[in-house]
Automatic annotation (TrEMBL):
Family: Belongs to the binding-protein-dependent transport system permease family.
Listed GO CC annotations: plasma membrane
Name of the featured protein: ABC transporter permease
Keyword list, A-Z: Cell membrane, Membrane, Transmembrane, Transmembrane helix, Transport
Listed Pfam families: BPD_transp_1
Annotated GO biological process: transmembrane transport
Keyword check for Glycoprotein: no
Source organism, top-level taxon: Bacteria
Subcellular location(s) per record: Cell membrane
Domain ABC transmembrane type-1 residues, every copy: 59-243
Transmembrane segments: 35-56, 68-90, 110-136, 178-200, 220-242
Amino acid sequence: MKPVLQSRLLPAALLIVLLTAWELAVRQAGLSALVLPAPSAVARALWTTLASGYLWPHIGATVAEMLLGLALGGLAGLAMGIALAESAALERMLKPYVIVSQVVPKLALAPLFVLWFGFGLAPTVVMTALICFFPLMENTLTSLRQVDPDRVQLFRMLGASRGQTLLRLKLPAGLPGILAGLRVALVLALVGAVVGEFIGASRGLGAVIIAAQGMMDTPLMFAALAAIAAIGLLGYQATLLLERRLLRPYAEQQP
């Protein structure tokens, strides 16, 4: 069996085994769907809400919040990481404040965001951006600082400016670490979007979970969780494809 095919079949087989065990355990124990619905009940709820069109606007809202927050927080984190890597004085001055901003629980700030930005898209995007900011900033800073000093010195000896050294040496060399930070940021962006919807949103999969909890509709809650998991997996695979595409020219240059 080819390694690629095997790597795809094994996770699928494991998923089938886990779902089968879950289904049998629920049926044998006679658990109510209110406590723990069987996978078949979750699948019916997911299919019904997708076929009726109920879930699609909520999926679209969550994806939009995730992507907007990732774009804002990711760009800010990348810019801050580059700035701190290029200036030790700036790092000493700003790094403590950046760390403090991250150790404060974002969920605790959610009521303030609702107060400042109102209900809807804005507070969720702000929370998502704050959550995405730190992974990209830290990975960018670390990756740029770990570039081979001998190569940096060679660029300086050849008369390259600071900007040329950054664009032609440090960023390409640090690209794998930066993209790893992007993968982490994307996963956290989805978490931030859903958590933000718990507090101040009427649309989105987080709002669906809260509504399902109020209606005591546990299958719908699990269906929303399944949709969130699918979005996360698709987003993560998209970042892997982007990483392979961006790193391919550098891999081809290797002997």
